[in-house]
Amino acid sequence: MKFLLSFLLSFFPMVMMAQQKMTWEEAYRQADEIVAKLTLDEKLHFMRGYSEFFFYGVPEKGIPYIYHSDATGGINIRRNLPDTTMVRPLERSTAFPCPHMLAATFNTELANKYAMAVGEECRAGGIEILLGPGLNIARNLQNGRNFEYFGEDPHLSAMMTAAYVKGMQSTGTAACLKHFICNETEFYRRRSNSVVDERALHEIYLPPFKAGIDAGVAYVMSSYNQVNGEWAGQNSWLLKDVLRDELGFQGCVMSDWSSVYDTEKVIKNGVNTEMPGRKTVIEEARKLLAEGRVTEEDINRMIRPSIATGIAFGLYNREKYSPELLANYPLHEQVAYDVAAEGVVLLRNNGILPLQPGRDILLTGRFLNEVPRTGDNPAASAAVKGYDNVTLVDAMTRKFGNRVKVVEQPTREDLAAADIVLISAGTIDMESFERPFALPASEEKFIRMAVDANPNTIILVNSGSGIRMTDWNEKAAAVIYGWYPGQNGMNALVDVISGDLNPSGKLPVTLEREFSDSPARNTMPDGAEFYHTAYRAYNEKLISVFDVNYDESVLVGYRWYETKGIKPLYPFGFGLSYTAFELSKPSVKLKGDQILIQVTLKNIGSREGSEVVQLYVSEDNPTVLRPRKELKAFRKVKLEAGKKMIVELAIDKNDLAYWDVETHDWKVNEGKYTFSLGTSSADIHCTRSLEIK
């Protein structure tokens, strides 16, 4: 049953609140009135969180306790809260495909529906703030937290972010952008110092946050790491000059959990609520007041955005629960399936897919009787377990019946004798960890044995980020990237294998041949030749702060590989289909400050399918180092076989700008620009030039 989300939501108008219920000016005026009525003790308590996952409240003065929960890809139901009287936990929450898979859809409308579905479950469960979306850039494919983000490209991430924020907040659930900023490694993340230049910060890492702020987001969370020598959560330049003054954010800034250390800086430097709050922070604040190092007005300035945001978004004066939304779970399951269906990326296919009826399949590998997902430790923010979970064995048996034979440890002879071999491979990524780019040695050895033994071997990869596939990719009959597909995503993956679905997913990251090719190859400090093996089984305080040098500057992802002339295994934006498309007749015109692009897309294959038209722009004679080309627009289009349509894209002249470090502002050079239209960063079908004056 495929229903439209907007249609069903029309039955629940009481939850379809405005994203912001009043102007910021009025919200801050009311917040000042409330702050004036608070005692000093109450003000000090507002500096920090309450009971791990709440903002402090004074209900008798009109400020209830506000509950927030993780994560971007669904709701982490925490049943171990120190104070369970504050909220009635949901009995279940839908496990959606991970955000990386959502990004692979290149479908902003679907991102909006995804966020609306998560937001509805928040409203049903009394969750006022959802701690997402995560916006950090996939600079480093070993980062165990990439699955929570939207890939390597700032434009793709920005577009998905805006759609997500609008969808989430249309339900009345407040969104929180995280982690501000340059938190692209999980290796001892509380001890890393991201050394990043001004151009890279503005061109690569800030755009998704700017998009979320422009979409009206309520909250921003600072990150664990230092940025150029100061902890992000107490960095005055970052939180005041950049986030507030430059990006125009007017909501509440919370720290990431246990990520700030200097109480005077916390009070003065731009964070509004320390989460969950050090036990000593209130007494330290009292001491600072007594010594005259901070004033009560400093405390007022710190806490007023938190209260103003609660007022602006109507979090203080509404019914906490909307239980009628529990009836929408079947719809949420459909949204989860739809995201997986559009996010599956077919990387390689020698013609074996879709599988023809009557083929016998030996099914083996890592994820057979479990749903591949992130680490399930409940302390990890993105642990969403879901319900009615469908495993690969379940889905394959449903589709192919007794033609599927499950063999957990097949011999080489078993593999060679099989008609078709389908191997499930992948990784279990999680917060707080870097993980090797290569698969475990035993799994890598097994895959190489299988592709050598049987040319009809299909590899299904479930991972939250990129993995090394260099030694077996070209020997496999097909390679499918299935990410973490959510509770029912295995049905979508198997529907792609059978041909009931035509794949249309595109890589939101570049998959390199070797990690030594990556600009993030030196992320970990010298001598760090190990990876964490148990969740938070280490003492960060024993590790010295180390620099993570963003030496590649603006050359992140495909920008790096193309500009440096390094050929990846698979390029950004790549993904195969069971049909074929052709782009032709491009035109580029300047109309005022708008650049209008048209191109004809034709389905030249034999079945209906979807293609993502991607627009890349490059400056022909740049005055500073610029990437060879950059994604500036995209559109996903579905076409029947033999049909064609004119695809229209539009960008602003300012989208051609780079960040000028001399003027500390955006700059568009006059001169010729090349507009490249294609189906991946490497598959360019046609180009046009335009003179900008």
UniProtKB/TrEMBL annotation:
The lineage of its organism: Bacteria, Pseudomonadati, Bacteroidota, Bacteroidia, Bacteroidales. InterPro entries: Cellulose_deg_GH3, Fn3-like, GH, Glyco_hydro_3_C, Glyco_hydro_3_C_sf, Glyco_hydro_3_N, Glyco_hydro_3_N_sf, Ig-like_fold. It comes from Phocaeicola vulgatus (Bacteroides vulgatus). Gene3D superfamilies: Glycoside hydrolase family 3 C-terminal domain, Glycoside hydrolase, family 3, N-terminal domain, Immunoglobulins. Keywords: Hydrolase. SUPFAM superfamilies: (Trans)glycosidases (SSF51445), Beta-D-glucan exohydrolase, C-terminal domain (SSF52279). One of its GO terms (molecular function) is beta-glucosidase activity. GO terms for biological process: carbohydrate metabolic process. Belongs to the glycosyl hydrolase 3 family. This is Glycosyl hydrolase.
